[in-house]
Design a protein that fits this description.
By secondary structure, the chain is mostly beta strands. It contains no helices and seven strands.
């Protein structure tokens, strides 16, 4: 699922296991963006660096599904 942008505090679910992961950092290296995710309820060792995938309708994290609904105020 694509979102308009990856932001700190977003929760994404790993499709493989169903575990929830929290975005703790987003950064760019030259022409590529990465997100650092930490497993919700996990240890300090459970951290993943995921390349942000650019899609026609936004961005996504391969292997993950966005779990939160956007709130419009």
């Amino acid at each position: 699922m694509a979102v308009s942008m990856i932001q700190l505090g977003q929760v994404w679910r790993l499709e493989e296991t169903g575990a929830n992961w929290l975005v703790t950092k987003v950064y760019s290296e030259v022409f590529t963006s990465f997100a650092i995710l930490r497993k919700v309820g996990g240890t300090d060792a459970e951290v993943r660096r995921v390349k942000v995938e650019m899609l026609a309708d936004g961005v996504s994290l391969p292997g993950f599904v966005f779990t939160q609904e956007a709130e419009v105020f």
